[in-house]
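Q: what does this look like with calcium ion bound?
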Amino acid sequence: MRVLIIEDDLDIATNLYEFLEGRGCVVDMARDGVSGMHLAVSGEFDAIVLDLGLPGMDGLRLCSKLRREACLDVPVLILTARDVLDDKLTAFDCGADDYLVKPFALREVEARLKALVARRRGRVVNRKLVHGAIAFDPGNMAVSVDGRPVHLSRKCLRLLEMMMSAPNRVYSRAELEQELWGDEHPQSDSLRSHMHLLRRALTDASGLSPIETVHGVGYRFSAADVGQT
Ligand code: CA
C-alpha cells in the first residue's frame, strides 16, 4: 500500500511514517498543504492521511481541490484535533472518506486505511468497461465483443484493462512494462509481442483495431476506432 502523509506536526508525522513503513507500506510525507497537494497529484498513492490544520493550504481546501480540480478519487483519511460534528460533516463535504480524532492509535490508522483501500478496489473491480462492441469485466477478467467471449492471456488482459480504463490516453512503453513486469526488466520486444497478440485477438473477434501505436511514445486505446467520439 502506497501512503502519502500530509501533516505538519513532526512527532505525529514521524510516528505515522515509521509505523506504516514498518507495516510494509511505501510512505511519502509532506509537511505543508502546497507540497502535499503537489505530491498527491504527481505521485500514485493508494491512500492519503491528511491533517486539517496545515500551513500553506489547509486540509479541507486541499481535499476539495483534489476531488474537484484534480479529479482524484484516492481515499483520504482526515486527522484532526477537534472532535466536533460540524468539522466532520465539512470534511465529508470536501470529499474525505474517513475521519480520526487526535490522539489516535497507530493501529487504527492502519486498519482504516486498509478498509478504505479495499472499498475503493471493490468499486473499481465492479466497474465494467464498455467501449463500442468491446466490453471488459474487471471482476472476472473477461473480455467480450458483441457478447461473445474473447480469450486472452493474463498479460494481454492487463494491458487491455489499463488502456480501456482511460480511452485515448497514451500509455508510454515504460509505464506498461512497469505494470506488467514490475522491476524485472522484460526482454526488449516482450511488450510488442503481447501488444501484437492482443491486437490480433481483438481484430479477429471484432474486425476493429482500436489499439493504436503512438510513434516514439507508446500505445492508446482509441475510442473513435470502436465507434465512440
Ligand atoms: Ca496541524
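Residues 129-225 form a domain with the Arc Repressor Mutant, subunit A fold (CATH 1.10.10.10). The CA atoms of residues 88 and 99 lie 7 Å apart.
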